[in-house]
Amino acid sequence: MAGHLSQSELDYPFKLLDYFNGFRVSKVIFSACELGVFDLLLNSQKPLSAEGVAQELSTSVDGMERLLDVLVGVDILDVELVDGKAYYSSTDVANLYLAKGSVKSLHDMIIYQSQTIYPLWNNVVDAVREGKNQNEKSFGISPEEIFQTIYRSEEEMLKFMGLMNSTWVLDGQDIATAFNLAGFRSMVDLGGCSGALARELSKTYPSSSVTVLDLPKVIQTARQHFTEQNDTIMFQEGDFFDGDIPPADLYILARILHDWQEDKCVQLLKKIHTCCQPGGGVLLVEALLFENHRGPVMAQVFSLNMLVQTEGKEHPPSQYSNMLSSAGFHTVQICRTGKSYDAILALK
């Protein structure tokens, strides 16, 4: 590590200290979302004092002032002094991504990170020692029952579906346009959850039919909480591991394979290959690791999260190519988007 650091960093480890404090900064943002700080400031017609925010949100003034000051320090809020008194206002970034009402809101993603992922990561040491997820220690549920843990209550299901919805509202357009998919007239998003990615695909390729296939309780919840006016996508109840998969020209597996061990991934890809129309294909959406183990850091962190929460991991492109070839697919194309998630297209 030292060989990659500047002399100034060796003299005083600023970067390391930033890393050490990273979890605290995350929790500041999470806490502000949970308390409703960003929604209050967005809806306010003027900057608010710490006293004003605390009164509206029923918190202590001292605690709120400290929280607001950190948010100013990390450029998420702005502050101005009037006669020596601080008044806080929201920034464009906070309004766009952190307030609930924004079309690009990441609020649901943050709630899931704070209330589900954060507790799991308290047990990272045990996950590394044992080589298995920490669902039993964190939530009292068998480590083999991954999605029974994720969907352990209606509240938890809504949190997870909100996370996935936020993910594809943010990244869906980059995935939909990673390749020209106009030639695929029918698409099925397997495990498509809330339908957010399917909607991006449908908007980009209006001449193609797009169907979300997921577990019955997920589809029922999606219809109840996540449908939009003038929806052009369809929802279908099913289990792509144990049930039938409808025929289609293109199957989408977005953040699905990384949940499972490789043999189960190949088994699913073989099943999809059998159902796939001739000339059709499969689109994988995953956070691709570099082949040389040097990043991307976000994908590496995601991979560690898969250890803590599931039975899977993130992979470099070569690993996915091998899985696809083993299942009978060919002409594997890779697209790194430069964002959180990448795309792999393979044909039958």
Can you walk me through this structure?
By secondary structure, the protein is an alpha/beta fold. The chain has two domains: 96 residues, Arc Repressor Mutant, subunit A, CATH 1.10.10; 171 residues, Rossmann fold (3-Layer(aba) Sandwich), CATH 3.40.50. The protein has 17 helices and nine strands. The strands form two sheets. The protein has a seven-stranded mixed β-sheet with strand order 5-4-3-6-7-9-8, sandwiched between helices. Strand 6, helix 15 and strand 7 form a beta-alpha-beta unit. Helix 8 packs across helix 12. The longest helix is centred in the middle third of the chain and has 23 residues. It is globular. Pathway: Aromatic compound metabolism; melatonin biosynthesis; melatonin from serotonin: step 1/2. Keywords: Melatonin biosynthesis, Methyltransferase, S-adenosyl-L-methionine, Transferase. Its EC number is 2.1.1.4. Homodimer. One of its GO terms (molecular function) is acetylserotonin O-methyltransferase activity.
